[in-house]
Specification:
Blueprint (H helix, E strand, L loop, with lengths): L15 H8 L1 H5 L3 E2 L10 H13 L10 H20 L7 E6 L2 H11 L7 E5 L4 H4 L1 H7 L4 E4 L10 H11 L4 E6 L12 H8 L3 E5 L18 E5 L1 H4 L6 E6 H5 L11 E4 L6 E3 L16 H14 L1 H21 L9 E3 L11 E6 L9 H10 L2 E2 L1 E3 L4 H7 L4 H14 L3 H10 L8 E5 L6 H16 L3
Parallel strand pairs: 1-13, 3-4, 3-5, 5-6, 6-7
Antiparallel strand pairs: 2-8, 7-8, 9-10, 11-12, 12-15, 14-15
Bound molecules: pyridoxal-5'-phosphate.
Length: 465
C-alpha cells in the first residue's frame, strides 16, 4: 500500500478510470450506473479480498476477556480507534471513538445522554436528517426548548451565527447545537466555522458528518466539534453495521447515560443495586462491538487516504459540475427548463449530491417515481423521495404550512400513506412537488454515469408517463 498522509496539501493525480477498472469493475461488467453514493459508497474489491484473507489468518474472540483470542480482538479495536482518530486529524489526548452500528446510533448515544432541560436547549438546522430530528424527542421530554435554524431559498443556513448569538443572549444557559456538515438533500456544505462559533458561545456541538466525510476531508484539529457522527459504509462501502461517534473526551464525560449494558460497566451489583460505568469510549459501547470488522475499517480508511481525500473531492466536484450544467441545459422544445435543480445555482461549497425534479411542459414536477422507474429499467441507481430530510424537502418543494398541516391531519385520520398524503397535497396546491430525484457521485463515478442519467431524463421526456 502507499503511505499517503490524510491532509496532504499538494498531491500527484490519480487515474480515476484506472481505479474504477481495478476496484469497481463489477459496475461495467453488470452495465450499471451507480449514482447513490449518499445512500452508500461502493466498496473497492480489494477491501473485501484483503479483509477475507486477514480473517482467514486470524483467531479473534470476544474482546471482553483476557485470552489470546480476546486480546487479539481488543488490540484490533484499539488499532481501529487510533486509525479513525488519525483519519479525522483528531488529537487522541482530546478525542476518543465510540464504535456504534451507524450514524443514527452514534447520534442516539448523544441524544439519550445529553442533559437537556429548561436551561439546556436543542438547536438544530432545518437541513437535518431524521436521525438528528429525532433528538428533539429527548429534548422535549426533558422540557427543553427546541429551535430550528431556517434555510434560505438556496437551501443554505440563513444568518445562523447571529441567530445563535441572539438565542444565547435571550436565554439562560446554552445547549446542544446539531447540524450536518453536508446536506444529504442538496449537497450544501454548511460552514464548518459554525462549530467554533457555537462552542465559543458555550454550546455543545454535534456535527453530523455522514454525508460529508465520504468525499471531503474533515480535520477535528481545525473543526473542534464536541461530537461527530459517521457511518463507515458511506465512506468505503464495506462493512455495513459500523459507525462511530468521535467525541471530545471532556464532552463525553459530561453525558449521563440513561442505562448500562454488558461491556460498558466496571461492575454491576444485583445485591446492592449499584453499577459503575466504564470510563471513556468503553462506557458508551453497549454489548460487544463488531470486532470482526475492525480490520476492514482500518483498511477502508487506508484506502481513502491512499487515493487521497482532496483528490476524491476534486474528482467528485468536477463530475458534479458537469452533471449540474447538463441538467440546467436540458429544455423542452419551447426552451422552458426540463429540470428544476434544488439548492444553490453556483454550487460553491457543495458536495456531490444533487436533488432535482423533471418538469413537464406546463412546468409541473413529474412524479419522482416515474423517473425512478425509468432509471431502474436503464440500470441507473438514483434515489427518489425526501431522503429522510423533511426540513430541506419542505423548503425546496414550497410546502404551504397550513395546507400541509391539514393534509397531514386528514391523511393520518384515514390511515397514513405517503401516496395519499401526496395526492391530497397536490389537490390542494400545498406544494409544487412531493419528493425529488437525488443523484450522488463518488470516487468510482465517471462521465458516462452522468450521461446515462441524462439519457434517462431525455427518455422520460419522450415517453408518456
Ligand atoms: C446526513 C445524514 N445523517 C444521518 C444519516 C443516517 O445514517 P445511517 O443510516 O447510516 O445511520 C444519513 C444517511 O443517509 C445521512 O445522509
Amino acid at each position: 500500500m502507499l503511505t499517503a498522509t490524510p491532509h496532504q496539501a499538494a498531491q500527484p493525480s490519480v487515474d480515476f478510470s484506472e481505479l474504477r477498472a481495478r476496484e469497481f469493475a463489477r459496475l461495467d461488467a453488470s452495465a450499471q450506473a451507480y449514482l447513490d453514493y449518499t445512500g452508500s459508497a461502493l466498496y473497492p474489491e480489494r477491501l473485501v479480498t484483503e479483509h477475507a484473507a486477514a480473517l482467514r489468518r486470524a483467531v479473534l474472540g470476544n474482546p471482553h476477556s483476557e485470552s489470546p483470542a480476546s486480546r487479539a480482538s481488543t488490540a484490533l479495536v484499539h488499532a481501529a480507534r487510533d486509525r479513525v482518530l488519525r483519519f479525522f486529524d483528531a488529537d487522541p489526548r482530546e478525542y476518543t471513538v465510540c464504535f456504534t452500528a451507524n450514524t443514527s446510533a452514534a447520534i442516539h448515544l448523544v441524544a439519550s445522554a445529553y442533559p437537556f432541560g429548561r436551561d439546556a436547549r436543542f438547536i438544530l438546522s432545518a437541513d437535518d436528517h431524521n436521525s438528528v430530528n429525532g433528538v428533539r424527542a429527548y429534548a422535549e421530554r426533558a422540557g427543553a426548548r427546541v429551535h430550528y435554524l431556517p434555510l434560505d431559498d438556496e437551501l443554505r443556513l440563513h444568518d445562523v451565527a447571529s441567530r445563535l448569538a441572539v438565542l444565547r443572549r435571550t436565554h439562560v444557559g446554552a445547549g446542544l447545537v446539531a447540524f450536518p456538515a453536508q446536506s444529504n438533500f442538496s449537497g450544501v456544505q454548511h460552514p464548518l466555522a459554525l462549530v467554533e462559533r457555537a462552542r465559543a458561545l458555550g454550546y455543545t456541538v454535534l456535527l453530523d458528518a455522514a454525508a460529508y466525510v465520504p468525499t471531503s476531508a474533515l480535520s477535528l484539529n481545525r473543526t473542534p466539534a464536541d461530537f461527530v457522527a459517521c457511518s463507515f459504509y458511506k465512506m468505503f462501502g464495506y462493512p455495513t453495521g459500523i459507525g462511530a461517534l468521535v467525541a471530545r473526551r471532556e464532552s463525553l464525560s459530561r453525558l449521563r447515560r440513561p442505562w448500562f449494558a454488558g461491556g460498558a460497566v466496571e461492575y454491576v451489583s444485583v445485591q446492592h443495586g449499584s453499577h459503575l460505568a466504564r470510563d471513556g469510549a468503553d462506557g458508551f459501547e453497549d454489548g460487544t462491538v463488531n470486532f470482526l470488522d475492525m480490520e476492514a475499517v482500518i483498511r477502508g480508511l487506508d484506502f481513502l487516504d491512499e487515493v487521497g481525500m482532496s483528490r476524491i473531492a476534486r474528482h467528485v466536484s468536477a463530475l458534479t459540475s458537469t452533471l449540474v450544467a447538463r441538467l440546467h441545459a436540458l429544455t423542452h422544445r419551447d426552451g422552458t427548463p426540463l429540470v428544476r435543480v434544488y439548492g444553490p445555482r453556483d454550487r460553491y461549497d457543495c458536495g456531490g449530491t444533487v436533488a432535482f425534479n423533471l418538469l413537464d411542459e406546463r412546468g409541473d414536477a413529474v412524479p419522482y417515481e416515474v423517473v425512478e422507474e425509468h432509471a431502474r429499467r436503464a440500470g441507473v441507481s438514483v434515489r427518489g423521495g425526501c431522503f429522510c430530510n423533511p426540513g430541506a424537502s419542505e423548503r425546496a418543494f414550497g410546502f404551504v404550512p397550513d395546507r400541509t398541516a391539514s393534509c397531514i391531519a386528514e391523511t393520518r385520520r384515514a390511515g397514513w400513506s405517503l401516496t395519499e398524503f401526496g395526492r391530497r397535497m397536490r389537490e390542494c396546491g400545498g406544494a409544487h412537488a412531493i419528493g425529488a430525484v437525488r443523484a450522488s457521485l463518488g470516487m468510482a463515478s465517471n462521465d458516462r454515469d452522468v450521461e446515462r442519467l441524462i439519457e434517462v431524463l431525455l427518455g422520460c421526456k419522450a415517453l408518456p408517463y
